[in-house]
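Q: Can I see a sequence and its folded structure?
A: Here is a first one.
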Amino acid sequence: MKTIPIKTALATAVQAAHAAGKIMRDNWNKPKRVASAEAHDIKLELDVHCQKRIEQILLAAFPKTALLGEEGMAGNADSDYRWVVDPIDGTVNYFLGLPHACVSIALQQRDPSQTPNPKRPPHLTVLGVIYDPFLDELWTATRGGKTRLNGRVVRVSSRDKAGDAVVAMGFSKSKANLEKSLPHLNRLARQTRKLRVMGSAALELAYVASGRIDLYVERTINLWDIAAGALMVECSGGECWLNPLPDGRFRMCADNGRLRKKLQLASLLK
């Protein structure tokens, strides 16, 4: 497959993110139809609607690519390129009327030089777009470039003391994850300046990239939640530590490059 022009791909991803964001805004004050509900999560019919709109735009422009999304797969599964999409990251927030949710789109390229290694994903993220339709904030990043927020270059924070840090945590609600995570939640609440549990992994990563928070950690998380944001953290001068799990999910910690070890998170990420 020919190399995809990154500038064109980025413009297309921005178009798709804005289109899905418009759907989110247009339906903000309307009743939400629940497609499925679990003990700790909700899926809306709008999740599917937003992903279908994103698919239409991305695959019309790049019909030979694959698309991996929270709401399923589409396109050419054998492609060297794949879009990774979370159409509404923060669905529970959105459903409850909390305006902290976003669209996340990443483009990944298969790494032909990489020998098989279960500790390293076989795809490399080459661009990321995160759009918050409620604040009209658009983050973009391309590998080797800078992270931008509405066109302005942003960077991670410079805070390096635990007592000054603002930390965000996310939780997968399995018994094992809660048993591992809750003691760290208690410790970090006492050790840091502030602890936040906000409910949108993509936005938390964008906030790390922008210096709004200093570190975000989650013990079990899906690729579509973090593909775009992890690149943004790296492109803004931070570090994103990912440990792939056998089921395709990840242990993940993203920070400004100064705090992960100081906050003693190694046991949480095992």
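Q: Show me another, different protein.
A: A second, unrelated one:
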Amino acid sequence: MIDRELPVTEDELHAFVDGELPDDRKEAVSAWLAAHPDKAALIAAWRAQADSIRARYGAVVNEPVPERLQLEQIIKNDITSGRGRSWPAMAAAAALVAFIAGGSVGWFARAATSPSPGVLDTFTAEALDAYKLYVVEVRHPVEVPGSELAHMKQWLSKRIGYDLNIPDLSSMGLKLIGGRLLPGPAGAAAFYMYEGPSGERFTIYCAKAGAPETALHFKSAEQFASFTWVDDKIGYVVSGPADRERLEAVTKMVYEQVDKGEPKKG
């Protein structure tokens, strides 16, 4: 029996859009939407957004999840990071994140360190893997929503060990969706996601790095691209669609706003 009297929840509306609503609620939700045209218009907007995201990023949905981003590995890294490692081991891990000097841009011209070849690619690959994994998510792209900005900043700063700033990219038409905690090359990594009106998404991945400063480095991977640099021992990767001019503009704004931070005591 279909119960039309049960209230329709927001979770049910999201499930309705995603095609995950149980069969015994579909008719009731459809009838409820017919009686609430404002909500029906909202559902139409959600569907349009979901279609836009799938059209832009659908090619990566079926890619295998990298081992380092699988739940078991994240839990393992979270448990073993920090106290579970010796200082020499942590120093060795941090040294792996020293960046090879990349191509500089006019607004970013400065001296660069000379780390081991291939290390920059490893750091950038982790950020791009995270981008491809979460950018296709419609309902759960982040752990903490952008509406909880203060909490998100405090939580991620504590886990990474630096006071981090979360850039405001609204002047570029990009809204902060939220953020999440990820395993990084030498501990935890912070991951923020932004979305434009057409559904385009950009992410910022940041974690402790072994070099005090490097030049900007550009990497393109099919329909995605990224800019990577290290500033004050924190590595940053800004990822997005492979439109270099647009990505460079976003990266410039991120660079101008990120808080270089100070290591947290204890």
